[in-house]
Recover the amino acids of this structure.
């Protein structure tokens, strides 16, 4: 492009740009407003204008002096999310291995798994609650809540893992078998290292989806609420800006989990690249990079 020449925009560039920024404002505007209001002064309320600027409501979350103690609900949500993450990764990985070889009823099972995604979340929670009631059992966050969350995270994890396995080069396994590797050695040294980024992605989805899930948890937490259920309960009673402070803290926490996951994926891929370079240096040829 010559100096001074005007940049030619495609037709409709300005309307699309305006629409994009309006969408970004719609998406992140509420989060920004909550973050700003969480720094209200001690006499501040839930709306603008702000009355002062302080960390009072963040301190109130850590050492509550009013209605709403979010510490235990936060701990329960994190513990539940970690359990859901581990089970989602395990089941999704095993499902990916099973679908690679195929089995009787696999197609029917696949569509049953997908059905869990389209079922209304509140009805899933209601059904699990009624099931426990019919068995004369009290549902809790670690029983009914766990099942409700897995009905949401496992289908997504299976779909992701099937997509990852679809890109897996089976010739790598055949090469390992030709070199005398057993099935377990093949799984541990070939399949799992290559699938590691996908497994981390599944774990990230499992954790974040469980951590902030409300509809599927609303009727199955029993006597001890998770953080989303507790926040909704406080909203309906006597909410203070501490609710916004919790929202800001949990948003930062979720972003930290995402950053940690991306860092883990980076190091896994860097380690794989280092191994590939070592093989190339040892045998004097470029390794197969299709995996």
């Amino acid at each position: 492009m010559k100096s001074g020449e005007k940049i030619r925009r495609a037709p409709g560039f300005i309307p699309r740009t305006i629409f994009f920024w309006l969408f970004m404002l719609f998406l992140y505007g509420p989060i920004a407003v909550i973050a700003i209001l969480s720094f209200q002064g001690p006499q501040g309320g839930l709306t603008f204008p702000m009355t002062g600027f302080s960390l009072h409501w963040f301190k109130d979350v850590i050492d509550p002096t009013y209605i709403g103690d979010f510490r235990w609900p936060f701990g329960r949500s994190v513990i539940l999310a970690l359990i859901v993450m581990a089970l989602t990764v395990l089941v999704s990985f095993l499902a990916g291995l099973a679908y690679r070889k195929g089995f009787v009823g696999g197609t029917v099972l696949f569509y049953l798994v997908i059905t869990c995604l389209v079922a209304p979340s509140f009805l899933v929670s209601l059904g699990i609650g009624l099931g426990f009631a019919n068995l004369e059992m009290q549902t809790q966050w670690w029983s009914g809540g766990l099942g409700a969350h897995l009905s949401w995270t496992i289908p997504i994890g299976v779909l992701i893992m099937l997509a990852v396995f679809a890109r897996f080069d089976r010739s790598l396994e055949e090469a390992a078998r030709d070199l005398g590797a057993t099935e377990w050695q093949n799984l541990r040294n070939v399949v799992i290292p290559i699938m590691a980024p996908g497994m981390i992605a599944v774990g990230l989805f499992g954790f974040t989806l469980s951590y902030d899930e409300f509809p599927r948890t609303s009727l199955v937490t029993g006597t001890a609420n998770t953080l989303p259920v507790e926040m909704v309960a406080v909203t309906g009673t006597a909410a203070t800006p501490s609710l916004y402070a919790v929202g800001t803290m949990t948003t930062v926490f979720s972003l930290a989990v995402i950053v940690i996951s991306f860092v883990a994926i980076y190091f896994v891929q860097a380690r794989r690249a280092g191994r590939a370079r070592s093989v190339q240096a040892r045998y004097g040829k470029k390794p197969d990079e299709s995996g």
